[in-house]
Batch of 2 targets.
Target 1
Amino acid sequence: MIIMNEKIVSKSVEDTLEIGKIIAKNAFCGEVVTLSGDLGAGKTTLTKGVGKGLGIEEEINSPTFNILKCYFHDPLPLYHIDAYRLEGVRPEQKNIGLEEIIEGNGVTLIEWPMYIEEFIPFDSLSIEIHNDENENRTLLLSSNSPKYFTTIKELKEKFGC
Ligand SMILES: Nc1ncnc2c1ncn2[C@@H]1O[C@H](COP(=O)(O)OP(=O)(O)OP(=O)(O)O)[C@@H](O)[C@H]1O
Ligand SMILES: [Mg+2]
């Protein structure tokens, strides 16, 4: 199995939005992107970029109080999951249909994936965002699925360091 790992840098909110747009440009039905990183790292900002890139006009906000928000749009709907509030919740109580969404017909972005690890496909695209100084963010991209290699390569070309 080939694993592709790349490190890219965002220097501003605009960069992070652009990174999201590149992900959207290459998006496909069934895509799953996990976004980990500290509070305020830019996970929701990146998701906003994906939404814009998919042509979704509705404002994308943090779904922290909802766990899941669906943005129905053709050809690809966006599903935005924020699992922050599922920390410490017992597995049987987490059975709220997230698995069906993740395996569904859209693009799913997942903030705080560690709290729903059991639902994350092994071949998703993982993005770990680190807060550096000021507005700088380092993003570690990783996937073992060739389905994401075009996206990773394009991001590396535009935002690689
Ligand atoms: N390069 C950058 N990329 C993204 N956001 C940045 C950047 N530089 C500064 N910011 C600021 O960091 C914050 C990121 O907020 P955002 O809601 O996207 O983070 P988050 O990772 O979703 O947080 P949470 O864990 O609370 O959900 C915003 O206030 C944004 O203006
Ligand atoms: Mg967020």
Target 2
Amino acid sequence: MTDKIDKWLRNGPEAVLRKAALREGYRVLDFGCKQGRYAIPAARIVGDSGLVYAVDKDKQGLREVKRQADKEGLRNINTVHVAQYGAIPIRAGTIDVILIYDVLHGGYFPEKAQRDNLLRKVHTLLRPGGVLSCCLTHLRQFGWTYKETLAEITDAGFRLRRQFRPTLVHENKLVRVRIFQFTKPG
Ligand SMILES: C[S@@+](CC[C@H](N)C(=O)[O-])C[C@H]1O[C@@H](n2cnc3c(N)ncnc32)[C@H](O)[C@@H]1O
């Protein structure tokens, strides 16, 4: 790992998450959290009065989230294992911010019905006025366009508020990405 990537990993994810509207006391769901690159800093931001649900279909990733949380003494992370395209066992309307970073693409969700199903589920979990933060990656690789992808998300009931373009680590490289911020109308 290069020094630059190492340096970014120390503070970069937290800075991105603050821009993505995370605040102390929030309940956050990180869908497709993998090893917790965002779930762990999210837990630091929301603090003891908040809660992070780290959700993935990959048990190995969730074990790593748990290991890191224990190492840092973070008791505000619940790891949630889900079946691929299965239910997400969290109470409806209770989440302030949902992260879907580097997950919503043709590698994991090739069929529109699978994407619609995910978007419907996260829409239900979010509280009115809550934020869906989506880092869209691999679009060109799967022949998708931003326009079509954003339309699928807004068709599921979200309203696009803004985008920002941070540099972050993706596939072991520092790259500039687009993060789109949606709200669930209240
Ligand atoms: C490329 S990683 C992104 C990890 C993290 N969000 C990040 O940006 O560093 C994608 C993760 O999404 C998870 N994932 C993909 N499809 C999923 C599904 N249908 N249900 C739950 N998790 C899924 C994978 O297991 C993997 O851990």
